[in-house]
Amino acid sequence: MIKETDNEKHQSHNHLTLFLEKSAVDLAFISEEQYVFLISSDSDSRWPSHILRSGTTTLKVGDRRLSGYASLITCEKEKRQIEANFRKKYGDTYFDRYFQHPGRFLKIDTSNNSAFRQKNYFEWLEEEFDSEAENYDNHIFGNRINKLLRERSLETIFGYLKPSFRVLEIGCGSGTETIEVLKNECSVVAVDISGSMIRKVKEKAVQAGLSHNLSTFKLRASQLSEILNIYGPESFDLIYSTFGALNCDSEIENIPPILAHLLRKGGHFIAGVYNKYCVSELLINLTLLHFNRLSWRLRNPIPEGHSRFCIDVYSFSPGEFNSMFKGHLKLVRSLGVPVLIPPSNFKRFMDLTGKRFEKMSSVDRKLAGVWPFKYLGDHFISVFEKN
Predict the structure, then answer these.
(1) How far is residue 319 from each of residues 42, 156, 273, 382, measured CA to CA in Å?
(2) What is the Cα–Cα distance from 326 to 168, expressed in whole angstroms?
(3) Which of 121-130, 201-210, 239-248 is predicted with the least confidence, judged by mean pLDDT?
(4) Delimiting residues of CATH 2.30.110.10 domain(s) in the chain
(5) Is domain 6-118 annotated with CATH 1.10.443.10?
(6) More confident residue, 4 or 208
(7) Which CATH superfamily does the domain covering 135-385 fall into?
(8) Is residue 245 within 8 Å of residue 135, measured between CB atoms?
(9) 367 three-state secondary structure
(10) How many CB atoms neighbour CB 3 within 10 A?
(11) Backbone angles phi and psi of 295, in degrees to 5
(12) Percent of residues, the chain, with pLDDT higher than 70
């Protein structure tokens, strides 16, 4: 059992030291029996990913050095209890100052007999998205660049969508696009690696009175053969996957032939993909003399910590991605998204533009399909057709 010393009790803001591979961080904590509970100050904090990837971690509480098994807490009820205990220990003023937008909640089991099993990549990915499900809408709509990405993807989707279509969505997330497609009198089959995200989509569909047209499956992108087994070939009029699922799957080469089987003749597949080449990011890093960041997107996978994401991602150039579909689907359109506006991690910088952001967005939209900009956005959208 972990107990705080008298000195720790006397110091209302006591911390522990968490040891990472090449550094250490001081963190607020609470403890209960053999468990230590930690909260990251925001979703961009990197230390949780480091200890979750390795599974085990070492920490120092007072004069005691402990090792333990780290796991991510995804249950919202448990998160709220931990938050209440943090407030009780540190006070509301401290908590609101340092945890205004709490990120990930972690539990470290320091008992000697704690079961440890190294999670594979997809298990880790699932837990990360489970953890973000409740706050995912704020992640999108609280960042005007992420919001722009969704607006552009919906513009593209609605350019090929008709009422009564059967639609397959790969990586539905919290349903920011799913619900809009359902409103167009379409039936949607939505898949996602995260069970918590799927529950969120179902809740939204029920609230909107659209659940009768929604079917969901807990699958990752490379498991679409299961959808083919259920619905059969040529069962979808439109398939889309925008800004997420395709960049998180290490087995993406399995996807093109399955999509070709699932699509009806004349149907379209719309893909929003994290680009290997981003001109706006390149120019900003050059201006800020961040030379070490110039080649980050060129690595595959791009490890957590070398991009703005808290997971590993796979980047593709439009040429690389589109070539995977050669012989399966015909490319009909490419767009850069966004082109002049920088990636979402430059949100604070873009917030300073105020109302000028809308004008910049308008110019960006006009350049999106123009060579060479359509190949140089933070993401790109490719539209394919089945002949």
Answers:
(1) 35, 20, 12, 10
(2) 21
(3) 121-130
(4) 6-118
(5) no
(6) 208
(7) Vaccinia Virus protein VP39 (3.40.50.150)
(8) no
(9) helix
(10) 11
(11) -110, 10
(12) 94
> In 3D, which of 368, 350, 373, 304 has the Cα closest to residue 153?
368
Cβ contact 201:210 at 8 Å? no
The label of the residue with tokens 């539905």 reads 172
What is the pLDDT, as a whole number, of residue 46? 79
- Report the DSSP pairing between strands 263-274 and 379-385: antiparallel
Q: Residue 21: CB partners within 8 Å, gap ≥ 6?
A: 50, 54
**Residue 303 DSSP SS3:** coil
The whole-angstrom separation of Cα 22 and Cα 14 is 23
| Out of 162-171, 241-250, 296-305, least confident range | 296-305
* Contact between residue 81 and residue 37 where contact means Cβ atoms under 8 Å apart: no
Within the chain, which residue ranges are assigned CATH 3.40.50.150? Answer: 135-385
**Amino acid letter, 106:** L
Q: What is the pLDDT of residues 306-353, one digit of tens each?
A: 677 777 889 999 999 999 999 999 999 999 999 999 999 888 888 888
- What is the rounded distance in angstroms from the CA atom of residue 39 to the CA atom of residue 164? 45
- Return the closest-CA partner of residue 278 out of 361, 373, 178, 159: 373
Residue 251: which pLDDT band, with cuts at 50, 70 and 90?
A: confident
Q: Helix 121-132 to helix 195-207 angle, to the nearest 10 degrees? A: 30
Q: Is the peptide bond prior to 163 cis by the omega test (within 30 degrees of 0)? A: no
Query: Alpha carbon of 359 to those of 149, 341, 354, 362, 364: distances in Å?
Result: 16, 11, 10, 5, 9
Q: In Å, how far are 98, 200, 254, 360, 361 from 355, measured between CA atoms?
A: 30, 32, 44, 9, 10
